[in-house]
């Protein structure tokens, strides 16, 4: 029984190690690792994996000591560590450190995401230039520039006519 439980906890420890890689595909506002993930969650996953492996060793100690006291203490310790280090500590860092200065702390991670997106779409070598828009329109200029809409009947009417009539007389069969 203790070997089976030790194997289960080793699998959970391996899961903690593999969870570190899932942070790269996590989607919040941006896809990928952010400040809290890089500085808190990655080390936390490693700590939880090591704690799991130690807990598994405690279960194997039952083979020699014939006592379940050490494994029970180690499971309780693993639960406390996973709640405090895996849940509460990252939430505290996010709310107390990151949120107040989010722009400066998250900026490098957002820039990494932008660069990766540009590389993925082949847009890394695009040159950007400033566009100075000139708005010299006059009042009523757009009234004569109505858009043309093709309705299902194939007849061409102006957008203004469609808005005034609700498009009902121009829809045709459905």
How is this fold's topology laid out?
Blueprint: H1 2-22, H2 35-60, H3 62-65, H4 69-98, H5 102-120, E1 148-150, E2 156-158, H6 159-165
Antiparallel strand pairs: 1-2
Helix pairs in contact: 1-2, 2-4
Q: Into which percent range does the helicity of residues fall?
A: 55-70%
Low-confidence stretches: 148-152, 170-174
The percentage of residues in β strands lies in: under 5%
Radius of gyration: 30 Å
Number of helices: 6
Number of strands: 2
Strand order of the largest sheet: 1-2
Gross morphology = elongated
Distance between the termini: 69 Å
Description:
This protein is mainly alpha-helical and 174 residues long. The protein has a domain of 119 residues. Helix content is 61%, strand content 3%. The chain contains 6 helices and 2 strands; from the N terminus they run αααααββα. It has a two-stranded antiparallel ribbon.
Give a quick rundown of the structure.
This protein has 174 residues and is mainly alpha-helical. It is 61% helix and 3% strand.
State the main characteristics:
174 residues, mainly alpha, two-stranded antiparallel sheet, 6 helices, 61% helix, disordered C terminus
